[in-house]
Amino acid sequence: MKRKLFIPLICLLFCFVTIARSQEVTYDQTENKNGKVYLKGKEVPYTGKINGFYEDEITKKFVGFYKDGLLEGFYEEWYRNGNLKNKAAYKRGKVEGVSVSYFENGYKERETKIMGGKKMFLNTWYSTGFTKSVAIYDKEGREHGAFKYWYENRKVESEEPYEHGIKVKEHKFYSEEGELEYMEIYKKGKADKCFEWVKRSKREVDCE
């Protein structure tokens, strides 16, 4: 008796999935007009989920949710190999919150946070997984704190401190071997003194 009930339930589930898939909207069913997404032939901006596929029409490329023709909520995109490429949250068509992009090998490439249209932080990586840069911003979206960059060999490339969008203190720049090559000393947002190192010998130079 249980087996007889089980088979119809499987058929019902299969039919439900098939119908749901047939009702999904794909990217080629839409068009962009004045920055908003519409279903082709419709006059009202689209609200709902949109799936994008690669040329084989099987491998999923992206999925996004739209409201009144603009991205709203989560958006995700994949490489052909199935690895995640991008993920972000949107509000009225603009990124809001944390967004992350990835290299095809799965390592992070870029991570940023935007709130109210203003950048809060931005971190980047090399495809090897090692950190490339770190940057922090204040609530107004201005550079704030120590900006730091690295070469791919993991040596520090530069150290650049900011206070609310203004360059401050010592900005240092290094060679790929880790040797200090150039330094700018800032006062009131302007380079006051500059130095360079040649064969580890320090000399003052004109600030560019």
Furnish the topology, listing elements before pairings.
Elements: H1 2-22, E1 25-26, E2 30-33, E3 36-39, E4 48-53, E5 60-67, E6 70-78, E7 84-91, E8 94-95, E9 97-102, E10 108-115, E11 118-125, E12 131-136, E13 145-150, E14 156-163, E15 166-167, E16 169-174, E17 180-187, E18 190-198, E19 201-205
Parallel strand pairs: 1-4
Antiparallel strand pairs: 2-3, 4-5, 5-6, 6-7, 7-8, 7-9, 9-10, 10-11, 11-12, 12-13, 13-14, 14-15, 14-16, 16-17, 17-18, 18-19
Characterize the structure shown.
The chain is mainly β and 208 residues long. Helices cover 10% and strands 55% of the residues. It has 1 helix and 19 strands. It has a 17-stranded mixed beta sheet that branches. The longest helix is centred in the N-terminal third of the chain and has 21 residues. The protein is elongated, with a radius of gyration of 25 Å. The N and C termini lie far apart (87 Å). About 7% of the residues have low confidence.
